[in-house]
Design brief:
- The chain is of the alpha/beta class and 239 residues long.
- It has one domain: 3-Layer(aba) Sandwich (Rossmann fold), CATH 3.40.50.
- 42% of the residues lie in helices and 15% in strands.
- It is built from seven helices and seven strands, in the order βαβαβαβαβαβααβ.
- Strands 3-2-1-4-5-6-7 form a seven-stranded parallel sheet, sandwiched between helices.
- Helix 1 crosses helix 7 and helix 4 runs parallel beside helix 5.
- The longest helix is centred in the middle third of the chain and has 27 residues.
- The two termini are 31 Å apart.
- The model has no long low-confidence stretch (mean pLDDT 96).
Length: 239
């Protein structure tokens, strides 16, 4: 399979379903070899098979990003196979319970901060060297509008996404003058995912866009020459 990303190596977290799975398939369709990262090997194998069936190339890397040292071990394993990492899509996230701020459970908040923030920093730290070796590396962080604009009952998730955005923005500024790494922070908008269904249980899934639309935009974006840091929101296409 050949395309705009032929010869590129991409890593996608949260690649077992939703936006992550769709993005992995879109990157593979554009020619990239995609490393699929998520907790459940069986789900990753399903995505991997879909990529193979479409003529693409992928490798599964089961990993619990919230586990201590898991990300550094993942990086060590990958650097033994690939010298550089061209694309990293940071998509894995957890939605803490939607509740008033005064009722947030510390354990739930800490879980959100661990996966949505601390794991992001660990991914950057662990893969920085591989990204530096790429001729034009791209990082895409999948965020949420509640990170930029507070919303009642979404305090825990919004706080974690605000920190997520800040980390990525700061990193983009830090490497802008010393490397070819470029960072995009992408808000997918209302999208048909398991997280969305959890947050809006009464919503008709058909009323929001498919993850494939978000995935297509991300795959196109990483092939573009954009100013870093770059921010955009993916709106539902007009009928």
């Amino acid at each position: 399979m050949t395309g705009a990303l032929t010869g590129k190596v991409a890593l996608v977290t949260g690649a077992s379903r939703g936006i992550g799975a769709a993005t992995a398939q879109a990157l593979a369709a554009a020619g990239a070899h995609v490393i699929l990262v998520a907790r459940t090997a069986r789900d990753l194998e399903t995505v991997e098979q879909a990529i193979f069936d479409a003529g693409g190339s992928a490798t599964i890397a089961p990993c619990d990003l919230a586990e201590p040292d898991a990300i550094s071990r993942l990086a060590t394993a990958l650097v033994g196979r690939w010298s550089a990492l061209d694309i990293m899509v940071i998509n894995a996230a957890v939605l803490p319970v939607l509740t008033p701020v005064w009722q947030i459970e510390p354990r739930d908040l800490n879980r959100g901060l661990l996966l949505n923030v601390a794991a992001t920093q660990a991914l950057i730290a662990s893969f920085h060297a591989m990204l530096r070796k790429s001729a034009g590396a791209r990082i895409v962080g999948v965020t949420s509008s509640v990170g930029a604009q507070a919303r009642a009952y979404w305090g825990a998730y919004g706080a974690s996404k605000a920190a997520f955005d800040n980390l990525l923005d700061a990193y983009a500024q830090e490497v802008r003058g010393i490397s070819d790494i470029r960072v995009a922070i992408v808000d997918p908008g209302a999208t048909r995912t398991a997280m969305r269904a959890k947050a809006y249980p009464g919503e008709d899934p058909a009323s929001v866009k498919s993850p494939d639309i978000v995935a297509a935009r991300i795959a196109a974006l990483v092939a573009e020459d954009f100013a870093s840091p770059h921010r955009e929101r993916i709106e539902t296409p007009a009928n």
